[in-house]
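Changelog excerpt

This revision adds worked examples to the README so contributors can see how folded entries look when concatenated. The first example is reproduced verbatim below.
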Amino acid sequence: MKSTRECPRESAYSMPAARPARAILWRIEGFSLKKRSLVLFQRDDCHLCDLALDVLAQAQAPEFESVFIDGDTLLEERYGVRVPVLRDEASDVELEWPFDEGQLREWLARN
């Protein structure tokens, strides 16, 4: 008599079964799976930088790092009077001021 072995069924928590559902969930909620590293370059006592922070809050932007360029020669040369500048380190793309909530959301969706 031939012995038959039953293959164990995949549980709902196994990776092959869970992966497509997670991908669909991410797509539905509009999230991106790529890692994003946002940096806001700004100056101390900068009114425009404060406005940019307000726009980031209104748009519910993902977490970002604030970098103050004051006293850093290289950053001052690069960003100088352009601050505030939001940079996506992962895609090497920058968004310069002025920007509003809608423009910020579009930029985040593209990058």
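The second example, added in the same revision:
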Amino acid sequence: MLSLSSKYWKYQWWFNSGDISQSNLCSQNYYMTQVAIPNQNGVNPFAAQCLPCPVGSGNAQPPSSSSDISQCNICQINYYMTQAAVTAYSGNTPSATVCIICPTGSENSTGPNSPGDISQCNECQAGFYMTKLAVQASNGVNPTAAQCNPCPANSTSQPTSTISNISSCQCFDPNAVATTLKKIIKVSIYFIIMMQIIF
């Protein structure tokens, strides 16, 4: 049986087996400005230095090497991309992708990875139904997002990429009964009662 002292040194060895430089990646949707520095030659260890991407932008994989804000090279879900990221070369100032949030009710299931327009918002969110598909810019036609109308109060719908109508909105309360069904139940009860009175 291990004594308290032996247990302490057992776990103290585990804690001392590494240092903060093992934090050598950035989380997704962050960019790395400085790689991790291990504890060697008297140099104090440092973790990787990471900064958050601008709102709406991100990256597909967590950065593992030092670079700049151009590591934020895709748009997150429910944003559309108007400008690609710019890397620092030939005197260029690096920049992240420019991403704009989709109009209310519209969305996309995957974040765009190339520049486009508002038509990248080509689906409707849950709780909305689609009345018009997204339109891409072409031959002088202005681009538009999918046109999405909100479901009535106390109802919702599944996300959709196809045109639908208000009938796709269903009561979200499992104990709620649709208005039409309520009327049918009331009429049925009334009919049963009347039959009992007559017979």
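Reviewer comment on example two: DSSP finds two helices and twelve strands in the chain. Residues 18-101 form one domain.
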